[in-house]
Write a structure and sequence with these properties.
Structural class: mainly alpha
Distance between the termini: 10 Å
Number of strands: 0
Strand content: under 5%
Shape: elongated
Largest sheet: none
Number of helices: 3
Length: 86
Amino acid sequence: MLSSAVAHIFGEVMPKHIVYQPPSRKVISAYAQLVCDRLAEQYGASYATPEVVSGFTEFLLVVAVMLAKRLNASCERENKVADTTD
């Protein structure tokens, strides 16, 4: 509500419907590999095995999808409230 008031004051057009998307599998996989490689440098090679990297990638994917769904649900609730007050 406040952000739409600020946008109105400054003459900006704010998008009403934002859709959050989780990062792609490729991006998450690259990030997981980087994290696991850094852990392996500090704590031993077992942190960078294909199984560990794959498991961490899947974990991050699940978290990213859950977060995107939660953010989208929050936006939908805000949009419904904004639609009834406009």
